[in-house]
Design a protein that fits this description.
InterPro entries: Transp_IS110-like_N (IPR002525). The protein is an alpha+beta fold and 70 residues long. It is built from 1 helix and 5 strands, in the order E-E-E-H-E-E. The strands form 2 sheets. Strands 1-2-3 form a 3-stranded antiparallel sheet, covered by helices on one side.
Length: 70
C-alpha cells in the first residue's frame, strides 16, 4: 500500500501544511488561516484527493462538502 506523509507548521494566525508521497515528492502545499472551516476543508481535500488515488474504490464522494471512507 502506498503511503503519504502530512506535516504541519502551526502558527497563531495561520498554518502551513505539506503532503509528501513515499518518494518524498511534494503532492500538496497550502497555507491556511487558523480557522476551523479552512482546516476542515484542507483535511477534506487531503482525504478526498490523495486517498482516492492511493486506495481506489474506498473513497466514495457523497457531495462536494461531504465524503466518507468505507
Amino acid at each position: 500500500m502506498a503511503r503519504i506523509w502530512v506535516g504541519a507548521d502551526i502558527g497563531k494566525t495561520h498554518h502551513h501544511c505539506v503532503v509528501l508521497n513515499a518518494e518524498g515528492e511534494r503532492l500538496l502545499w497550502r497555507r491556511v488561516l487558523n480557522d476551523e472551516p479552512e482546516l476542515l476543508a484542507l483535511l477534506a481535500d487531503i482525504l478526498a484527493h490523495y486517498l482516492s488515488r492511493l486506495l481506489p474504490r474506498t473513497c466514495v464522494r457523497l457531495s462536494r462538502k461531504q465524503r466518507v471512507l468505507r
